[in-house]
Amino acid sequence: MSVQHTPAPARSDVRRPAGVGRSAPARPFFKRGMLLTVGAVAWGVDSLIFGTDPDGQLEEALSSITGGMFQIGLMGLLTVLYATKALGEGGLARFFLRLEGVILVFAMGSTLADGIGVSDFDKLGWVLLDICWPLSMLGMFFIGIRVAIAGRWTGKDRYWPLIAESWGPICVPTFAIFGSTVAGVVSFVHLCVGYGVLGQLVARKQR
């Protein structure tokens, strides 16, 4: 008498445990970091060529395109800050990042309106929309301070956001004192060294 051992058929209804066979990407924020770098450098080059106060329809359109690329990069940065709880784990930190995101969306609307030439600064609504652009940059500066204080990001990651996000406090007074051309040079250097490098740090960030 022979005994045959027939293997039990594989069950198709048994799910593999979550995470089995799949590994988390080594650099989960790579695309967002690269987008921030590209946007910062593009807007910086535009500032270097045309200054920080573009004149004429073509200059305004190019400034809006490059500025919009930079703003999209900033939005990506906000999502990384939120995902990594860079400002802390409390509800206030999450609220502030959401608020900054809302202000940035309105700032992007202002950039688009300027680019297509529909802004009308004789009307209060357009003025308020335009104010969202500097407000968003001021908000990023406070975010940089908070990232440094919270200390959840370590090494260069901890302090470089503050360096990058000091663009407003540095470039705006430069424009007021020295004018558009000088401010454009300062803006170019600051954007490349600040946000350009920050984008690379974010791209290399593993968690």
TrEMBL record:
Name by which UniProt lists this protein: Uncharacterized protein
Sorted UniProt keywords: Membrane, Transmembrane, Transmembrane helix
Lineage: Bacteria, Bacillati, Actinomycetota, Actinomycetes, Propionibacteriales
Transmembrane segments: 33-50, 62-83, 95-113, 125-147, 184-203
Region (Disordered): 1-21
Domain of life: Bacteria
